[in-house]
Amino acid sequence: MKIENNIIEDLFELQGAIGIATSQTNVNSYDFNFRNYFDAKSVIRETNLEVVLRIGAISNYDLTYTELHQEGINLINSIEQHNLASLLPNWYPLISELTPRTVWFNKLPNIQEIKKEFDWPIFIKGERQTNRHKKSLCIAENEIEFENIINYWKHDPILNWQRVICREFINLEKIENAEGDKIQISNEFRVFLWKGKIVGCGNYWDSENQFVLDQFNEQLIKNLVMQVAEKIHVPFLVIDVARTQKGKWIVIELNDAQESGYAGVNKLSLWNNIILNEKQ
């Protein structure tokens, strides 16, 4: 089945609980062979179950959602819910007290605009994503580095169509020194929520020095993501959190979990938890 610029290679009902539409991305942190672990009933055209789309990044969710709906396939996150989770300017005003101070610009900002809002350093990203976690493209410690980022932004195919997001730079608890032009490896966790319930949690970074959550920090993370869930009503949501050098957990990013990689979250446990939640 072809949808917009993407192809669905497999469509099935997962143990009678949810529908799954998948395509292989060849990215280990994203792909998962459901049929190796679960009872999966193939769907020819339509299903009454809510469907999770696992085909990687979705270039035009509005069109994809509409095309699938016309085929009798209803995705778990509506268009409005997808845009709420995926676009920082949509979710930030609802949880601004839980995440670093942020300003966004509809056109490339100049130095004067930046200095009016922030002290150096600042963190810079697109409204959807950074550029492969490159330090030189997302952290500006002075005016020269800022100008270099903006000049690169003008021609980069990933960044040039996105609004510019500038964020207060927060020193996070470091767990590993970064190599080359990568950003610092910090104490970060990825949390998957299914209809307001935590169904998966794991280290964001693949590192030998991964932080092992004790009961106290696990509860702090749970408290934080539940505050988000109370304000961001998206059925399948990912929340990335991090611990600052001062020991406080903060929200780093939100996203539509359909597009999100698993990071250190156990894939089998995640889907088992989702199925159990649907069958309750």
Strand-helix topology:
Layout: E1 2-3, E2 6-7, E3 10-14, E4 18-22, E5 40-42, E6 50-54, H1 61-70, E7 74-75, H2 79-86, H3 88-91, E8 102-105, H4 111-117, E9 122-126, E10 139-140, H5 143-153, E11 164-168, E12 174-176, E13 185-186, E14 188-194, E15 197-203, H6 215-231, E16 236-243, E17 249-256, H7 267-279
Parallel strand pairs: 4-6, 6-7
Antiparallel strand pairs: 1-2, 3-4, 3-5, 8-11, 9-10, 9-11, 12-13, 14-15, 14-16, 16-17
Brief overview:
By secondary structure, this protein is α+β, with helices and mostly antiparallel strands. It folds into three domains: 2-75, no CATH class; 85-96 and 185-279, ATP-grasp fold, B domain (D-amino Acid Aminotransferase, Chain A, domain 1); 101-168, 2-Layer Sandwich (Dna Ligase, domain 1). The protein has helices spanning 61-70, 79-86, 88-91, 111-117, 143-153, 215-231, 267-279; strands at residues 2-3, 6-7, 10-14, 18-22, 40-42, 50-54, 74-75, 102-105, 122-126, 139-140, 164-168, 174-176, 185-186, 188-194, 197-203, 236-243, 249-256.
Please report the distance between the alpha carbons of the first and last residues.
32 Å
From the 3D structure, determine the CATH topology of the largest domain. D-amino Acid Aminotransferase, Chain A, domain 1
> SSE string, helix = H, strand = E?
EEEEEEHEHHEHEEHEEEEEHEEH
Q: Please tally the β strands and state the result.
A: 17
Domain unit count = 3
Percent strand: 25-35%
Tell me the number of helical segments per DSSP (H or I, 4 or more residues long).
7
Spatially, the strands of the biggest sheet line up as 5-3-4-6-7
Question: What CATH first level of the largest domain would be assigned?
Answer: Alpha Beta
